[in-house]
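Re: that backbone. Tokens:
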């Protein structure tokens, strides 16, 4: 390994490297001769040291049989650069080297021709033009047999191409290697059963080093007066080497003054997208064109979210379901299908993981700024989505009133936003989806009868903020009392996320809510306190997710009715429910609930019915400190179903010995959060065989101290 590190340092000294993921390499310059000249542009390798060491170790180490070395990552991240440097370094280690660029619309015959042109100087396209695919493959096999060879297949988009060409690559125990680059993680899993070498975005320091190398080369340092603004430019490239190189090339050609660099810093995205005939976007566009039809709307939808957003996956899933993007699959809920779509986009390195859940699932995701720019351009071209960006001072009415999905992002000042956005939405009769945040005010939407998705809840506001905004916009705003009443007239709504800024506690929910017979997701940020739902909520049979930030009191279902009436069979999530009476009749009417959050439970006489919820996976149960539960009643009535994966308790006042009978034996429990006074007494003595799948434990002591434990994954 020490020799490999030394070799990496030598490569850096020789300035060998190409930072462009879609590199079209002339086969004749990459031939088998170790003396072949390197005619392509040479710049310093930065940020690839660890990956280069790993690749070189795989190229020269065990085993002696033929080995596939996959390099995977998003477009423009430097996969080809890494492969190219390793390829150049091992001119003498391998008897034969060959490079073929595959691309999306691959041609097996052309791949074999490129390999033969690398293998032999005596071959030419003319001499090979009359050969069939089988003859070419036979010649490749014969040339490689008994030799130690390195083949690079750059930019693979399908495992099929490997299946067709690998027959011509003999596995003769000589230590031969096949290096591939791809943007698709699932291809790597199919080829080797693991993730391969995954390339990540550069950190700020490596981004700055790469930018300096592109501007000044290795002989010159950045002037001190430009260092601060230069580091800001590098950071704003968000770690994508291709973007850094494009900006570096522009800065290298411009006069090195602070004024020039500040202009580039302020206009970074637009400059990157215009420079060199939009090279960056063209690189990323290949990934979009390769998407199957069912994933394209899901990908374009990512443009709805503001730049640099950390996007909550659970919310994104609900939006995709409400928009109708998903193909129903027998035996799977739409939410499960939606997460599978999302995983596919992750595997294609178009969407990035920002944060994972304690159980290992993805909690937040994000997209690179350039990928988002691609979303917006393609969405606008296909009239899929209109986004008013913060820097856009005006919204052309002739354009916005024909759009079906509209997202108006927050301006730098609230005053400007409140002046522009409400007026822009006065006439959008074709709108199916609206995204905005109004700091407590809402434009009139009585003309939006086709609206399916309305999301306005990015920020909670005080009543005072609302009143100030209302006075300035009375010609197009609701009063606090009218907001929910009028929003609930949008009868085609499937997704509603709104603020309830009435100064009441509790607030009564409009009984007209039941006319929203299509509604699937209802999210309300109640400013003053909790909301009391009307009995009519039990008529909303399409409901899938209900979340009230200030709490919701659910009434008992109406008595009587025919079989199947007042049953919320699609309901999966009930969050922040107060005093939920978990009676037998209630449980029968929510048979498919998977997540329930009960806040401030004041009675527990029916908690035994929780055991009837066979699909419940997440339960959050809190008792009011003024209604301290009786331990004997808790032991008798608090029954947790076997399906539970995540459990949060607060104020249950159980004793540690009760852990054995109540929780320890749960077979699927992965996350356990114990709030203050959930368990009291002496020591917690664990029992062998309990908590067999637990991954995370959190306990809040009486003093307020918190103990977090990330546990090792259970062995199969």
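Recovered sequence:
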């Amino acid at each position: 390994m020490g020799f490999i590190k030394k070799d990496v340092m030598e490569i850096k000294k020789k300035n060998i490297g190409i930072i462009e993921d879609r590199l079209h390499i002339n086969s004749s310059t990459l031939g088998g001769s170790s003396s072949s000249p390197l005619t392509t542009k040479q710049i310093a390798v930065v940020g690839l040291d660890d990956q280069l060491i790993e690749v070189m170790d795989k190229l020269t180490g065990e085993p002696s049989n033929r080995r596939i070395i996959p390099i995977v990552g998003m477009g423009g991240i430097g996969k080809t650069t890494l492969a190219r440097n390793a390829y150049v370094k091992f001119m003498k280690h391998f008897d034969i080297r060959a490079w073929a660029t595959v691309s999306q619309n691959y041609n097996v015959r052309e791949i074999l021709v490129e390999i033969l042109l690398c293998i032999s100087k005596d071959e030419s396209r003319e001499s090979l033009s009359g050969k069939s695919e089988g003859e070419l493959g036979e010649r490749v096999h014969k040339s490689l047999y008994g030799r130690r060879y390195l083949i690079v297949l750059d930019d693979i988009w399908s495992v099929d191409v490997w299946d067709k060409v690998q027959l011509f690559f003999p596995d003769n125990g000589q230590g031969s290697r096949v290096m591939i680059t791809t943007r698709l993680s699932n291809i790597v899993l199919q080829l080797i059963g693991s993730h391969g070498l995954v390339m990540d975005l550069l950190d700020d320091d490596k981004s700055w080093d790469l930018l300096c190398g592109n501007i000044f080369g290795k002989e010159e340092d950045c002037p001190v007066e430009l260092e601060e603004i230069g580091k800001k430019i590098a950071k704003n490239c968000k770690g994508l080497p291709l973007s850094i190189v494009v900006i570096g090339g522009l800065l290298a050609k411009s006069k090195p003054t602070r004024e020039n660099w500040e202009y580039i810093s302020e206009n970074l995205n637009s400059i990157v997208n215009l420079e060199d005939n939009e090279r960056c976007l063209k690189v990323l566009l290949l990934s979009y064109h390769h998407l199957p039809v069912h994933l394209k709307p899901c990908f374009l939808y990512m443009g709805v979210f503001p730049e640099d957003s950390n996007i909550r996956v659970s919310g994104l899933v609900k939006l995709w379901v409400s928009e109708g993007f998903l193909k129903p699959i027998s035996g799977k809920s739409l939410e499960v299908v939606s997460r599978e779509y999302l995983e596919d986009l992750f595997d294609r390195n178009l969407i990035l993981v920002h944060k994972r859940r304690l159980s290992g699932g993805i909690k937040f995701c994000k997209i690179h700024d350039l990928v988002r720019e691609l979303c917006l351009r393609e969405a606008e071209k296909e009239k899929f989505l209109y986004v008013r960006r913060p820097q856009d001072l005006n919204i052309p009415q002739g354009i916005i009133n024909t759009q079906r999905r509209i997202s108006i992002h927050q301006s730098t000042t609230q005053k400007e936003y409140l002046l522009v956005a409400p007026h822009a939405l006065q006439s959008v009769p074709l709108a199916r989806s609206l995204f905005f945040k109004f700091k407590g005010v809402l434009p009139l939407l009585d003309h939006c009868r086709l609206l399916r998705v309305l999301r306005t809840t990015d920020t909670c506001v005080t009543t005072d903020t609302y009143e100030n905004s209302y006075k300035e916009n009375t010609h197009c705003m609701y009063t606090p009392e009218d907001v929910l009443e009028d929003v609930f007239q949008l009868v085609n709504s499937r997704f509603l996320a709104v603020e309830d800024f009435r100064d009441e506690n509790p607030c009564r929910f409009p009984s007209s809510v039941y006319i929203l017979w299509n509604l699937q997701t209802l999210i309300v940020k109640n400013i003053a306190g909790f909301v009391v739902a009307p009995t009519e909520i039990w008529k909303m049979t399409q409901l899938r997710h209900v979340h009230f930030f200030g709490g919701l009191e659910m009434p008992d279902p109406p008595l009587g009715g025919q079989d199947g009436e007042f049953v919320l069979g699609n309901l999966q999530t009930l969050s922040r429910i107060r005093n939920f009476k978990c009676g037998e009749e209630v449980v029968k009417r929510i048979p498919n609930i998977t997540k329930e959050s009960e806040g401030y439970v004041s009675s527990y006489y029916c908690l035994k019915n929780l055991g009837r919820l066979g699909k419940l996976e997440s339960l959050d149960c809190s008792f009011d400190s003024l209604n301290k539960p009786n331990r004997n009643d808790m032991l008798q009535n608090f029954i947790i179903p076997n399906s539970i994966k995540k459990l949060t308790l607060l104020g249950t006042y159980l004793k540690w010995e009760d852990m054995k009978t109540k929780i320890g034996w749960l077979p699927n429990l992965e996350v356990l959060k114990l709030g203050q006074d959930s368990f009291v007494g002496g020591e917690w003595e664990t029992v062998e065989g309990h908590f067999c799948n637990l991954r995370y434990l959190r306990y809040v002591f009486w003093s307020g101290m918190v103990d977090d434990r990330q546990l090792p994954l259970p062995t199969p």
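The first strand starts at residue 67 and ends at 72. Confidence is low (pLDDT under 50) at residues 3-44, 459-480.
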